[in-house]
Amino acid sequence: MRNNIEKYRRMEGVTEEDFQDRELENEKHWMLYDSALQYEASSDWVQAAEKWKACVNETLRQTDECRVQCEVASQRLPEDRGVDSVDGVYEKAAALSLSLLSCRQSCVTQIATRPGRISAQEDFLPSQLEHLHIAQFKAGDISGAVQTLRSLLLFYPSDKDSLNNLQLYYETLGGDTESQDTQPEVVTYISHSLEEKKLLYFGMENLDFSFIDPDLWTPEDVVPESLRDIWRAEKEKMNEKMKVGVTITMDDEVLNGTNRVVLDGVMTEKECGRILQLATAAASAGDGYRGRRSPHTPHETFEGLTVLRAVKLAQEGLVNQSDARLLHELGERARVLLHSYFRSPSGLFISFTHLVCRSAIAGDQEGRLDLSHPVHVDNCLLEPETKQCWREPPAFIHRDLSAILYLNDNFDGGQLFFTNRDAKTVTARVKPSCGRLVGFSSGPVNPHGVTAVTSGRRCALALWFTKEKLYRDMVSIMTSADSTVILLRSSLSPERSRGRGRVTGGRDEL
Ligand SMILES: O=C(O)CCC(=O)C(=O)O
Ligand SMILES: [Fe+2]
To answer: Which of 302, 358, 399, 404 should be mutated for ligand 1, with most atoms under 8 A from CB?
Structure first.
């Protein structure tokens, strides 16, 4: 029902007055949020800035209200922690006050969860401030942008992109740097929150109290060293696991070519399952490719999902947020592995990620002679007759390295194969399976294609990397749609590193 209401709200001619609802008050910030996004999409920066500002204020107001409710609602005395518990009256009193603080902290999650949805929008308030300062800047309100950015910097004081942007704003302002202060409500919000977090982490360290921090911006020094050590050890264990599992299965020699590699063990079975499920959920959420004929063959259907689309679906609560994040992380995992394998001296950036499933159309496979994906080169237009490869648009000429991360093997056909420049002489074949990563240079030494998928559904993550910074997949809110920044931020947590820049490059597409 909630989804329907949101759908009606987006329909032409429908106004807010058409929705008289008692719960509407609690949803006010979501209405502002959605209309701010709409103004942003139509580049109406004045209106966008106005709506984002109202949204920030409404979010702060509702958070305050929610926090007050924690005090009003009596806190339940924590249950005895089992028969061996030695909890005395002091421990109980401490636990009671910690519960109150934890309740207050949980308001962040509550306010950031759309009604009817299961997961909260991560980094909700900071991301609104980010949208706001950009809208203000684009609307020409530089002083406003400075004030907002300074408020944002209270959350992430050393964020390079924000500091660069602040510098840019100061330069635009021409020297008047100190007059714009931070928003006082944000200062209060942060200082209250930090005080609570300190006590809650103390409780976690010393009183066995459990607390899940709802924020990504919490400074590291608020978390006690001992807890950080535990987290670090867990992370290292994870990293080791990832490295240990990966093996080099085929190199240039076995693959009979240049700059080709097959690595195995890049994903676990569980991860493959999660991404396959994400593809299914995205398809049933009405992704554009659902049930579409493949662009390459009439005998197969083709579904495609980009990271950006996955994030949007996650925000709408239609797919799992952590699965959308995993999609992004897998690109990064492949990048690190291939960068290290090919020892490329320059940087390597993800340019485009596409989760693609190809399904055989049952009953339409008899006597089939074509391919699932005809032989091609990824960064130039191959002309097999002359063996020329034209590095010009519409080829994706900025692609330097291609990779395909396979997710399953329960289908027939669907082998990747490499050929000579004649597009006929097959030089190597690769059979997909879960966690298998094929990497190869995107140029004319590596023409390749995919044999017909004659039964079942073959899913893979296609990735392209570029050495040109300009073409990296910025997914920054400066050019692309909302909220991808949330994904990036959360996926880079807990280091809090926010690898975004303000220079944006051309967007890749398939
Ligand atoms: O899925 C594959 O194995 C290869 C796909 C491919 O070559 C492409 O999308 O450019
Ligand atoms: Fe390709």
So the answer is: 404
Which range marks the domain in which residue 186 is found? 19-225
Distance 260 CA to ligand 1 centre (A): 14
- Whether residue 500 is contained in a domain is answered as no
- Cα separation of 223 and 9, whole Å? 42
pLDDT at 175: 65
Q: State the pLDDT at residue 135.
A: 94
458 is catalytic: yes
Q: Are residues 206 and 64 in the same domain?
A: yes
Find the helix or strand (DSSP H, E) in which 241 lies: helix 225-245
Task: Give 299-316 pLDDT, tens digit per residue.
Answer: 999 888 988 889 888 888
**326/471 same-domain check:** yes
Average pLDDT over every residue of 216-220: 89
Here the ipTM equals: 0.99
Q: Is residue 2 part of a domain?
A: no
Q: Is residue 411 part of a domain?
A: yes
Query: Is the pLDDT assigned to residue 145 strictly greater than 90?
Result: yes
The ligand 1 atom at the shortest distance from the C-alpha of residue 358 is 1
254 with 214, same domain: the answer is no
Q: Is 452 part of any domain?
A: yes
Judge if 299 and 423 occupy the same domain. Answer: yes
Q: Is 354 within 8 Å of 306 (Cβ atoms)?
A: yes
Relative to the CA of 438, which ligand 1 atom is closest? Answer: 3
Which CATH number does the domain housing residue 327 bear? 2.60.120.620
Whether the pLDDT of residue 194 is over 70: the answer is yes
Question: Distances from the Cα of 421 to the Cαs of 77, 261, 385, 388, in angstroms?
Answer: 74, 19, 9, 8
Q: Which of 114, 260, 309, 458 is catalytic?
A: 458
User: Residues 151, 129: contact at Cβ < 8 Å?
Assistant: yes
Let me know whether 144 and 73 are in one domain.
yes
Residues with CB under 5 A from ligand 2 (ion): 378
Whether residue 413 is found in the same domain as residue 299: yes
The tally of domains found in the chain comes to: 2
**261-276, pLDDT tens digit by residue?**
999 999 999 999 999 9
Which residue CA neighbors atom 9 of ligand 1 most closely?
A: 462
Residue given tokens 């949020």 in the structure block: 33
Residue 36: phi and psi, rounded to 5, are -60, -40
Q: Are residues 186 and 273 in the same domain?
A: no
pLDDT for 88-143, tens place per residue? Answer: 777 777 888 888 999 999 999 889 887 765 546 778 999 999 999 999 999 999 99
Instruction: Please give the Cα distance from 442 to 444 (Å, whole number).
Output: 7
Give the helix ranges, DSSP H, for 288-320: 307-315
116 and 252, same domain (yes or no): no
